[in-house]
Write a structure and sequence with these properties.
Elements: H1 2-5, H2 10-19, H3 23-39, H4 42-50, H5 55-73, H6 83-106, H7 112-124, H8 128-141, H9 146-156, H10 164-176, H11 187-195, H12 207-222, H13 230-243, H14 247-257, H15 272-301
Helix pairs in contact: 3-5, 5-6, 5-7, 6-7, 7-8, 7-9, 9-10, 10-11, 12-13, 13-14, 14-15
Length: 302
């Protein structure tokens, strides 16, 4: 990424080639490069000129076009988004399918272009039946791809093209059929996060939610330590464990990801870093208080 910032495309091309058919890492790195290209794409243009039919350059282009569209729209809710933003968003997003189709044609086994197409479907309001067709195509290539499932869950959320029922159903089906270490068991927690509007923690402390968190703990333990989404899943675990009063376990997760805050649930907050720090510090304090009480009781018993 540092080389890209200097306008050098060759290191990025070499890294993409080295990733090969590790689809999780390929999708994650493509997203990083696409984000950079959405800001300034001179280096990507040079890459495309040097290697016109390079599938790696093509998938980065597809990613950058989709990312640019969403940057033009902005992250605010529709009522706070201007007509100019919506016009730029729609115009750019409507041009993205051609880039996605080209990337898919150049590397038919790669699920990454179809992951990007989910965000086109979401943004342009494609009907559920079209999403079902896209999903069948994508999961035929990579049935347990995390980024694909996360993106599809967003489509099925009530705030976009689905409902709480559809999102929860999708998340539960994906989690039920997921192999250990895929991290897909976190999807029901994300579906809950997306739709819960309660002011207390009762909804997080049902037997069902406690079982869900325990399942994710086992999934994380079985995951590849280099999985690109593992830090975010740990953040979600830390969050839900804290809401369940399991402060020691929550703090263990925080310690494994401290310093990384661009993750759910914090990126939904107005000030992610401040919210993260306050929540983590409260967790640490609560864990220390519990430890002190246990120590005092043990001393009294002795």
């Amino acid at each position: 990424l540092a080389a890209v910032a200097r306008g050098e495309w060759e290191p990025a091309a070499e890294a993409m080639h080295g990733i090969g058919r590790d689809w999780e890492r390929r999708s994650a790195f493509t997203a990083l490069l696409g984000d950079k290209a959405a800001e300034a794409d001179e280096w990507l243009l040079s890459w495309e000129d040097a290697r016109p039919d390079d599938p790696d350059a093509a998938v980065v282009r597809a990613s950058s076009t989709v990312t640019l569209a969403w940057k033009l729209r902005g992250a605010k809710r529709a009522k706070y988004t201007t007509h100019e933003q919506f016009d730029g968003f729609r115009r750019t997003l409507e041009s993205a399918p051609a880039d996605v189709a080209r990337a898919a044609a150049l590397n038919p086994d790669d699920p990454t272009p179809y992951v990007k197409e989910i965000w086109i479907a979401l943004g342009l309001g494609r009907p559920n039946a079209e999403m079902d067709t896209l999903w069948a195509k994508l999961t035929e290539l990579a049935p347990h791809h995390y980024e694909a499932h996360f993106s599809a869950l967003q489509y099925w959320c009530a705030k976009w093209r689905g409902s709480e029922r559809l999102a929860t159903s999708f998340a539960e089906r994906a989690a039920a059929g997921a192999p250990a270490g895929s991290l897909l068991t976190v999807l029901p927690l994300i579906a809950h996060l997306e739709h819960d509007e309660s002011d207390d923690t009762a909804a997080e402390n049902t037997p069902e939610m406690i079982a869900r968190v325990n399942t994710v703990l086992a999934d994380v333990a079985a995951a590849d330590p280099s999985h690109p989404r593992l830090p975010e899943v740990r953040h979600l675990l830390a969050y839900f464990l804290r809401l369940q009063g399991r402060d020691k376990e929550s703090l263990e997760q925080f310690r494994l990801v401290d310093g990384y805050v661009e993750a759910l649930p914090w990126r939904y907050r107005v000030n992610p870093a401040a919210e993260y720090c306050a929540f983590r510090n409260a967790t640490a304090k609560a864990a220390e208080e519990v430890a002190a009480e246990v120590s005092t009781e043990a001393a009294a018993g002795a």
